[in-house]
Structure to design on (825 residues):
């Protein structure tokens, strides 16, 4: 038994598929691709798959990762070939490799966001404020105030063919997670968001997660 | 506004995007016949329906045809679609309903009738057949409810009666021919009416007596007086999908399904499925096993369910399980055996089920006393129930569901008390067992549906209990339950009444359904949407009384709205069975003795075996 990490993109119509649904898709891909994965040993045995980070409904991603364990000596190349053959439209397997870090070490993520219409100036002004206080629901269901400004690692705003593009790096992972929708909602409650794409994930040193 | 602009505003957008694994994509430029296969309920319900999966696969076999799926959008999506002028579309191409040549509905239950109208309307299709003048689109319908097609007669151009694997293709081929010829709609319909199993309601007129019953039913334009349903003679050589469209969403039945036989040997007198799917035809275990294995491989499902009206009546069940258990166990695929009968639920079978996955047990004694069970020909005894429960409890089960019906013909309060008594006996049995599961209590759920008389059953002549009687019986049942170990769930009586009306309705109900839809009725099978008041208003405005359809006992010589349909069982047989019910006399099952229902005329399945034995 050896652990493998699978990286994939989730784009196009797959953005309408929830995280739970993607879990099921992956389980079926494993079966259809005849990948000999390790099953948990409990009352209800099921294939062990562990996803790096959940992705909100409506988001695309170029940096999804899932871990599983392989029972036989199938190579990473072969796993990649087999999963690619059974992946649905919108899912592209980009790499299969041996895991190095734990998913719990993920600390940040890049998001690429396209907002309909020209609002570069307003968005830049908003993000360059010294403080952006918003209310966030905590895991326990309470509400606390946080300063978004100190959470944003970096950002850049640009015009993109009549629309506005924002590239922003935010805390992501089990320790702290800021959904980019929180930033967008603080900016305006009347936005038409064309795309949100998770571009990359990083560890606490801002190294690309692997 | 585009579809993509509204998808993130609605719940579960994955219902509307298509692109699932197994969905069939073709180049529409090379297609002669485009077929929109509609299921007039939510995606999750429709995608669970085996009939649709089979016919989707069948209709996609010719390279000149492309069959796509259409489901009723949920309320929130419908609102967005109407607001933004987005017509109802098919999931594969995203093209609107009006781009299709044939729009086909499968109709598994009466309470989706208003949804059919709503789907057509959302697709920009005129609702009534008479308002659609062109060859395209033709609206066809099939499925169990169409054994009485009359309540939908105004809306549907062609009914396909019986099993659709062959007939659907025949209709599509005929359509293709007439599309090429440039025929008009009437020419096509006249030719279609010559196909065995096709019913074109426009070619028939009903005449009524002063009391509202049917005086006569006339065929015109050379259409046949009697339309006989179609059956598939050889299930082993009949098309069965080797792949399903596998949804992203978690749907109602999300698993591979292996159909093992059609029809039912039992002949429970309330059960429509037990009569309209006759004769019994089995698939051989080797074919069923091979199909199931292929299906699991292609879909990647980790659950497999056998499907039939009564799994344990399959004559080769042990052989089939012998084939299936080795590979399902090895692949860790959960095998489900639904619809097991009490009287032949063996210890050995329980072991086999238990070796896969332990779920709850459900039994359907249907009635509380032996007298009533005999009257409805549910050949199950109290001893059967107790024996099975004992085996189940000793095997580690602690919860049992018992299904009953209320309002059955000849039912008395004594029979209602019998329901409570039987449930109590199951509870007592549990606590009397030495080797019951340690430290656990028992839970018995009693589910009690209101009986709905259906066409082509012996009880098609019977009256449904009226509201007051049902309520009195429900109250009495609750009073008779003495312990919290027993929970009772009862059905909404408004829904049951409307279902009873639609099930045995005639053509005049078309206007009622139309009015109800206009008033906003839809998703009537869902308690949160069902609006009884609006239905009553619709009846009132049409000058019709629901009680005439639901609560009236029919004379045996009355012309019933579905008498021109030949489903395979004769009216004479049904009359005899109804008489036997009133004498509480049972009828042996088809394997024990041929009861002479009439289905031998198809010369297939168990009837052929029975005939052989006679020779």
């Amino acid at each position: 038994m050896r652990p493998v990490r699978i990286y994939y993109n989730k784009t196009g119509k797959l953005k309408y598929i929830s995280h739970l649904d993607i879990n099921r898709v992956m389980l079926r891909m494993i079966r259809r691709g005849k990948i000999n994965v390790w099953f948990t040993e409990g009352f209800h045995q099921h294939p062990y798959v562990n996803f790096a980070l959940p992705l909100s409904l409506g988001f695309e991603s170029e940096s999804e990762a899932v871990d599983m364990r392989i029972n036989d000596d199938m190579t990473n190349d072969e796993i990649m070939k087999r999963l690619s053959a059974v992946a649905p439209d919108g899912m592209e397997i980009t790499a299969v490799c041996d895991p190095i870090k734990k998913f719990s070490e993920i600390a940040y993520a890049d998001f690429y966001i396209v907002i309909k219409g020209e609002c570069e100036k307003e968005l830049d002004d908003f993000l360059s404020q010294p403080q952006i206080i918003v209310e966030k629901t905590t895991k326990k269901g309470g509400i606390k105030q946080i300063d978004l400004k100190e959470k944003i690692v970096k950002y850049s705003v640009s015009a993109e063919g009549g629309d506005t593009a924002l590239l922003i790096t935010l805390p992501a992972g089990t320790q702290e997670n800021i959904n980019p929708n929180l930033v967008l909602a603080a900016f305006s409650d009347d936005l038409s968001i064309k795309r949100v794409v998770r571009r990359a994930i990083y560890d606490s040193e801002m190294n690309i997660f692997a | 506004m585009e579809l993509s602009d509204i998808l993130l505003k609605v719940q579960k957008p994955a219902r509307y995007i298509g692109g699932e694994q197994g969905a069939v994509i073709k180049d529409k430029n090379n297609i002669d016949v485009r077929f929109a296969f509609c299921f007039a309920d939510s995606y999750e319900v429709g995608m669970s329906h085996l009939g649709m999966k089979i016919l989707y696969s069948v209709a996609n076999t010719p390279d000149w045809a492309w069959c796509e799926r259409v489901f009723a959008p949920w309320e929130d999506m419908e609102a967005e679609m109407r607001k933004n002028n987005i017509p109802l579309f098919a999931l594969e191409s995203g093209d609107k309903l009006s781009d299709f040549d044939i729009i086909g509905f499968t109709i598994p239950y009466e309470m989706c009738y208003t949804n059919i109208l709503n789907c057509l309307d959302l697709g920009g299709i005129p609702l009534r057949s008479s308002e659609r003048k062109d060859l395209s689109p033709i609206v066809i319908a099939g499925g169990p409810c169409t054994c009485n097609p009359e309540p939908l007669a105004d809306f549907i151009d062609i009914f396909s009666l019986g099993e659709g694997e062959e007939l659907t293709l025949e209709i599509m081929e005929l359509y293709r021919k007439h599309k090429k010829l440039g025929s008009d709609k009437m020419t096509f319909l006249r030719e279609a009416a010559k196909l065995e199993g096709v019913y074109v309601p426009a070619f028939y007129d009903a005449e009524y007596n002063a009391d509202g019953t049917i005086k006569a039913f006339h065929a015109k334009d050379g259409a046949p007086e009697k339309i006989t349903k179609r059956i598939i003679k050889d299930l082993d050589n009949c098309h069965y999908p080797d792949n399903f469209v596998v949804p992203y969403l978690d749907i109602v039945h999300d698993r591979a399904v292996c159909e093992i036989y059609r029809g039912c040997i039992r002949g429970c007198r309330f059960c429509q499925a037990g009569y309209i799917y006759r004769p019994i035809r089995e698939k051989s275990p080797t074919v069923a096993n091979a199909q199931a294995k292929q299906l699991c491989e292609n879909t990647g499902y980790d659950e497999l369910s056998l499907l039939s009206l009564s799994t344990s009546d399959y004559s080769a069940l042990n052989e089939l399980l012998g084939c299936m258990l080795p590979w399902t166990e090895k692949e860790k695929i959960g095998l489900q055996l639904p619809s097991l009968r009490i009287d032949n639920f063996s210890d050995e079978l329980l072991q086999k089920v238990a070796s896969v996955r332990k779920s709850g047990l459900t039994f359907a004694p249907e009635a509380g006393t032996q007298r009533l069970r005999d009257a409805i020909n549910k050949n199950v005894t109290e001893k059967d129930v107790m024996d099975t429960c004992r085996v189940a409890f000793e095997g580690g089960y602690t919860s049992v569901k018992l299904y009953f019906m209320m309002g059955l013909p000849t039912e008395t309060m004594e029979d209602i008390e019998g329901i409570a008594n039987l449930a109590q006996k199951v509870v007592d049995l549990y606590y009397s067992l030495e080797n019951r599961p340690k430290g656990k209590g028992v839970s018995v759920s009693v589910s009690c549906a209101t009986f709905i008389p259906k066409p082509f059953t012996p009880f098609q002549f019977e009256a449904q209990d009226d509201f007051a009687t049902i309520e009195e019986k429900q109250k009495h049942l609750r009073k008779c339950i003495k312990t919290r170990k027993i929970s009772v769930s009862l059905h909404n009586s408004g829904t049951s009444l409307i279902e009873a009306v639609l099930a045995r309705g005639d053509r005049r109900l078309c206007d009622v359904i139309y009015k109800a839809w206009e008033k906003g009725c839809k998703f009537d099978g869902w308690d949160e949407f069902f609006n009884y008041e609006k239905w009553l208003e619709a009846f009132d405005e049409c000058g019709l009384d629901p009680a005439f359809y639901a609560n009236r006992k029919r004379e045996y010589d009355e012309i019933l709205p579905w008498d021109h349909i030949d489903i395979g069982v004769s009216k004479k047989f049904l009359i005899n069975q109804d008489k036997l019910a009133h004498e509480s006399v049972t009828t042996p099952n088809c394997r024990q003795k041929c009861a002479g229902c009439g289905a031998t005329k198809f010369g297939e399945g168990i009837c052929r075996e029975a005939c052989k034995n006679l020779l």
User: Anything to note?
Assistant: Residues 360-508+544-555 of chain B form a domain with the Transcription Regulator spoIIAA fold (CATH 3.30.750.200). The radius of gyration of chain B is 24 Å. Chain B is about 35% helix and 15% strand. Chain B has a mean pLDDT of 93.
